[in-house]
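User: Please predict the structure of the protein below. I'd like the answer in C-alpha cell form so I can feed it into my own downstream comparison script.

Assistant: Understood. Taking the following sequence of 428 residues as input:
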Amino acid sequence: MSTLQVGIRKEIMGKGEEGVLKRGFLFACTDKSESECLDRLLFATGKIYGPVVIRIRRGDILFLNNIDTDVLYGVFKAVSDGGLDIEEGTFNGRYRYQVKVEPLGGVVKVEKARRVLSRFGLKRNRPVFRGKLLGLLEIFKSGAQKGDLLNFQNLKEYEDAMTKEMERIKNSKAEVDIEEEIPLIEATTFWDFPKQSYGLTPKGDNKYAGVTPALIIYNMIWRYTEPGDLVVDPMAGSGTTIDVCKEEKRIAIGYDIHSTRKDIIKNDAREIPLGDNSVDMVFIDSPYGDNIRYNEEQGNIGNISSESEEFYDELEKVMKESKRILKEGKVLGWLIGDQWVKNKFTPVGLKIYERLSRRFEPVDIICVSRRSQSSNTEVWQNRARRFNFYLRGFKYLIIVRKHSRKSEPSQGRRIKWAYYDRNKSGKV
C-alpha cells in the first residue's frame, strides 16, 4: 500500500464505520476464472477497470458476475483496499488490479444477472450506493430465503449479517464521496471532453489561462503508468497533473517557471532537478507561442513567438531534459496547438512533432477537441466564414516513447493485411 493510501485509510478509520459511505462495486468473471475468484476470495480485473479498483476501500460491498452463465454472486465485503498485485502471479498475471473479499454471512446465487444489473443501472465502472444498493441487497436476501444459499450455509447467520449491513446503509449520514460513473479510458484517437475536470474534486483551476483538461492526464496515466509511479509535469500551470495523480494514486512532481501554488516548485523546464532515468512518465502542456501572457517571468518560453525558430529551439531543450529523466521505454505526452493570426498559419504542432521524433520513438497522435477557447462563439464563427479562415478546433496530444535497448528496430517488418472482397456486398 502506498503512503497516499495509508493516509486515506487512517482518515477513513478515524471517522468510524458508521460515518463512511457504503459503496457497491461489480466484478466480472468467466467460467474459467470463477473458481479462482471464489476459492481465493480474491476479485481481480485488468487495467481497463483499474480506476474502479483503486477507489474500493475496506468495507465496501462487492458482487461477482459470471458473464458466461449470466449469474450474479453475492454478497461480499472488501477486507482490503483495492490495489495492484495484492496476490502476485494469480490469474496467470492477467488481472493485476485486485481486492480481497469475504462473504457477508454466506454466498447467494442470483440468476438472470443481466436483467438485475439493468434494473439497477449497474455497470463495472458505475458504483451503486444508498437506495439502489439497498434494493440490490434485498434481492440477495430474498434469494437466500428461496434456498439459493450456496454450500449449505446457515440461513439465519446470513439474514442477520445482511440485516445489520442494510441498517448501517440506511442510517449512514455520510456524504457521497465517489463519482456516479468512473471514466473509462478513451478507445480512439479523437478525445472530446465537455468539462475541464471530472469527479467530485477540482483538478487544476478552470479559470487559469490555457488550463489542461484533466481527463487528458487521466487517460495518459492510466494507459502508461501504474499506481505509485512517478509522473513529472515540467510546465505545471495551475496544477492539473498533480491533482489528477493524487486522485489516481500516482506520485507527481510539478514544476513551473512561475509557481501558482505551494506544491508547484518554481523551476525552469529547460533544467529539471531530477536524476537520469528516474521518471515513469512526463506530461507537458506547453505554450503554443506568445498568444497568452502567462506571467512576466524572465526567460518564459511563452513570451517567444511561435513564428520564430527560437521558440522551437527553447522547447527542444525541454525535450532533451524530459528524455534524460525518463526511464527507458517510458512515455512523454505533449499537448500543443497550432496558430493562425493576421492571415498567417503556423503549424506549431507539426513543428513540435518533427523535433520530438528526432529524439523519441513515436507512439501516436491524439486529436483533442478545443471547447473552452474564447473564439468558440457564434461571432467568431461568422467571422471565420465571412473572411475565409478557420478557427482552431483541436489540439494535438503527441505521445512518444524513450527508446529502450531491448526494443527491436521497426525497419523492414512485414505486415500480413486482411483484404476483404468488396463484391461480396453485391455492389460493383
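That's the full C-alpha cell string. The CA atoms of residues 100 and 146 lie 28 Å apart.
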